[in-house]
Amino acid sequence: MAGTRDDYDVTAALDEFYASRTGVCGLVESGVTIVPPLFLAPNSPPPPPLGTTNFIIPTIDLSLPRSVIVPLVHAAARTCGIFYVTNHGVPADVIDSALSAVRAFHELPPAVRSAFYTLAPVGGVSFSTYRNDRPRQAARPDAIPVLPWRDSLTISLAPPGPDMGHFPASCRDPLLEYHRVMAEFGKKKIGALLSEALGVGAEWLEKTMQMEAASMASHYYPPCPEPAKVIGGMDHTDPFLFTVLVQDAVGGLVVHVDDGEWIDVPPVAGTLLINITELLKVFSNDEYISIDHRVRVKSMKESRVSIALFFNPSDSHIIEPLPELVTADKPRRYRSFTMTEFMDSRKGKFGNGSSSIQQFALTSEPSS
């Protein structure tokens, strides 16, 4: 695939790329030295400068007394929407094994890796390069859709669970163990703290909302010959309650803060990153915020690995602000809607930098 957009056949290029079944990693393995047009992102921001904003991502020590932790969680969720946790109790070897398993899977020989490549989930599992069908916002009417510089192994964890029997045990077993341990952590610790911080009782998310770890996305960002010209993950807010993220030491996650800047969310050894997402923003009646984020590719030589575990309520629950959080001073911000309505509303809109929940809003978002 050539690195020019003149007379470029997008459909043919997409067909050729997906037919290779080796993903973005396959391009790197082939020795590509120029970013193919499908991946060009001329409007992506440069690496955000350091020291130009007062935005600080909080770090919360979970070994502190609960009477101290709960107010800290509340403050972080309502002012930042994202925070680190330390002394979380998740064994380091479980995290390290999962990250290593993701890396090893994505770096399997192309002939082996391609057997698992599929655009549509099979048995609740997909391994592919996400396709964004939304045209880029650019002056050219024939702007080429963006593919991220990233391959993803995505696992649906809804009952009866994923069918990963055909995956290498070296990949399958560490990821399923990671899910088991992190799902318990998310429900018993993070879900309970976020619920208690809202003033609705520590068991609200787990028991009332029947919250579960709904899916897990393991991302691999290969090195890139022209990192500034690509995007690892496009602008978005997550369509869940909250996300627990681990990332290796390479980094690349950035968040969009109120003053318009993109700032780094650097990896911090020994921490987990908690990201408040759209549904919890609705349930909290905008008490909690959900922050726009993306991933930039940083290196011509190093690959990046991350694992995101997403928590959702049961599909049977109506999504609406909690009555306890609707007051005369803070009236209801969103109408009621179902999970099906919500997920349908996001189709074709991922990566456009806007929030899906605004179409359910009864009032405009408050300024902050």
From TrEMBL:
Q: Locate the coiled-coil region(s) and give their ranges.
A: none
The record's listing under Pfam families reads:
2OG-FeII_Oxy (PF03171), DIOX_N (PF14226)
InterPro entries the UniProt entry points to: DIOX_N, IPNS-like_FE2OG_OXY, IPNS-like_sf, Oxoglu/Fe-dep_dioxygenase_dom
What UniProt keywords are attached to this protein's entry? Iron, Metal-binding, Oxidoreductase
Record has Oxidoreductase as a keyword: yes
Q: Which cofactor does it need?
A: Fe cation
Where would I find the Fe2OG dioxygenase domain in this sequence? 212-313
Q: GO molecular function: any one?
A: metal ion binding
State if Nucleus is listed as a keyword.
no
Q: Which family does it belong to?
A: Belongs to the iron/ascorbate-dependent oxidoreductase family.
Q: Which PANTHER family match?
A: OS01G0536400 PROTEIN, OXIDOREDUCTASE, 2OG-FE II OXYGENASE FAMILY PROTEIN
The protein depicted here goes by the name Fe2OG dioxygenase domain-containing protein
